Amino acid sequence: MYPHERSLVKRLANEKFALIGVNSDPDLGKLKKRCEEENISWRSFWNGPKGTRGPISTRWNVRGWPTIYILDHKGVIRFRGPRGEAMDEAVDSLLAEMN
Amino acid sequence: MKLSLFVLLLLAIAIPVVAQGDVAAAKAAFADLKAKLDAEQSAYRAELGKLRKNEEYVKLRKSGDRQAAGALYRELMKDIKRPDNGAYTEKFMACAKKFAGTDGAVPFLSWVSMRAASQDDRKTAIDMIVAAHLGSDEIGDFIGGLPRAVRALGRENVESILDKVIAGESSKLMKAHAWMSKAGLDRKPRRGTEDPDVTARREQALAKVSQLAPGSDLAARAEAPAFEKNRLQKGMVAPDIEGVDLDGVKFKLSDYRGKVVVIDFWGDW
């Protein structure tokens, strides 16, 4: 999944777009090393030492990883779940709405 | 006379202290044994990971010959040592015996009740907890695992254990665990429609969790399905997230208002 997200972030670097992660790795040290190795540049909330049982994913009732939500520029939830090309198309359609 | 009174008094003070000491020692012993098992399991998973990258296996998969790939996989797997569930079950049971009579036995029995390969062993461990530890404050994990014991015990028996906890002298938190597991028995099906009575029963059980243990992790889990239904649907303004990034810097989801945002719940696994 990283390569796809890397290319999305790179392609839309100059657009009004952000990819925000919520990361559920319990070991922060190991995770930061992995981010360097994989060149993961986007910002993530850390879900805390309880990993997948941390507070953010618990509140949002996340039970599968990855789980995707896409919000428009007003903060409205417009898509739930699309990955890969469907994710790109969803983001592009919301960016087009802004113009 | 005076001396025996003194001895009695001493015993009355000493016994609870010893019992508490046992629980702490048991928890430490449990953590040790569990760490050993975890290490074996992660070594096992690492070996399986290597196997999936085996050159010959990868070649066979790419060629589309799934049958041959599968056969090779099974052959290679024979050389990988899997953690011995039966041996660990025996070890956990031996420790439970060592700490029998105190709540120190609970973590060991809980493990067997949820993880033993043999359904009979699971049942034995469950019976032991029910017989001696049902009022204990250490049985949260055990209660949480009970919905998965339906196969070993049957639903009615699982439900009757949970009802005993709820009706008994347990702490509010343990009762909340029991309600959470009752909700777990009435899990929402992934597909298809659900009997409205079952939905109502589950929602009532989850409401009890919040009532009994407000603000707890358990309550957060209990409230999550309703939160998703009422706040996380398409067309709704996303609830704000406040937290810290991987460098410990505070930020909010709403900081990104004005931009299209993909929220990606991810993990490096």
Q: What's this, in brief?
A:
The complex is a heterodimer of chains A (99) and B (269). Chain A has 99 residues and is an alpha+beta fold. Chain A contains four helices and four strands, in the order αβαβαββα.
Count of discrete alpha- or pi-helical segments spanning 4 or more residues of chain A: 4
Q: How would you describe the shape of chain A?
A: globular
Q: State the secondary-structure class of chain B.
A: mainly alpha
Q: Please list the strands of the largest sheet of chain A in the order they lie side by side.
A: 1-2
- Order of SSEs of chain A: HEHEHEEH
> What is the terminal separation of chain B in angstroms?
68 Å
Low-confidence stretches of chain B: none
Oligomeric state of the chains? heterodimer
SS elements, strand count of chain B: 3
Top keywords for this entry?
heterodimer, A: Glutaredoxin, two-stranded parallel ribbon, 4 strands, 41% helix, 19% strand, B: two-stranded antiparallel ribbon, 67% helix
Which helices and strands, and how do they pair?
The complex is a heterodimer of chains A (99) and B (269).
Chain A: H1 2-11, E1 17-23, H2 28-38, E2 44-46, H3 55-59, E3 67-71, E4 77-80, H4 84-98
Parallel strand pairs in A: 1-2
Antiparallel strand pairs in A: 3-4
Chain B: H1 2-52, H2 55-63, H3 66-77, H4 85-98, H5 106-115, H6 119-132, H7 140-145, H8 150-153, H9 155-167, H10 172-185, H11 196-212, H12 217-231, E1 242-244, E2 250-252, E3 260-266
Antiparallel strand pairs in B: 1-2
Description:
The complex is a heterodimer of chains A (99) and B (269). With 99 residues, chain A is of the alpha+beta class. Chain A has a single domain (2-98), classed as Glutaredoxin (3-Layer(aba) Sandwich), CATH 3.40.30.10. In chain A, 41% of the residues lie in helices and 19% in strands. Chain A contains four helices and four strands. In chain A, the strands form two sheets. A two-stranded parallel sheet of chain A has the order 1-2. A two-stranded antiparallel ribbon of chain A has the order 3-4. In chain A, a hairpin with a 5-residue loop joins strand 3 and strand 4. The longest helix of chain A has 15 residues, at 84-98. The model of chain A has no long low-confidence stretch (mean pLDDT 93). Chain B is mainly alpha-helical and 269 residues long. Helix content of chain B is 67%, strand content 5%. Chain B has helices at residues 2-52, 55-63, 66-77, 85-98, 106-115, 119-132, 140-145, 150-153, 155-167, 172-185, 196-212, 217-231; strands spanning 242-244, 250-252, 260-266. A two-stranded antiparallel ribbon of chain B has the order 1-2. In chain B, strand 1 and strand 2 form a beta hairpin. Chain B starts with a helix and ends with a strand. In chain B, 26% of the residues are buried. The mean pLDDT of chain B is 91. The interface between A and B is large, with 58 and 37 residues.
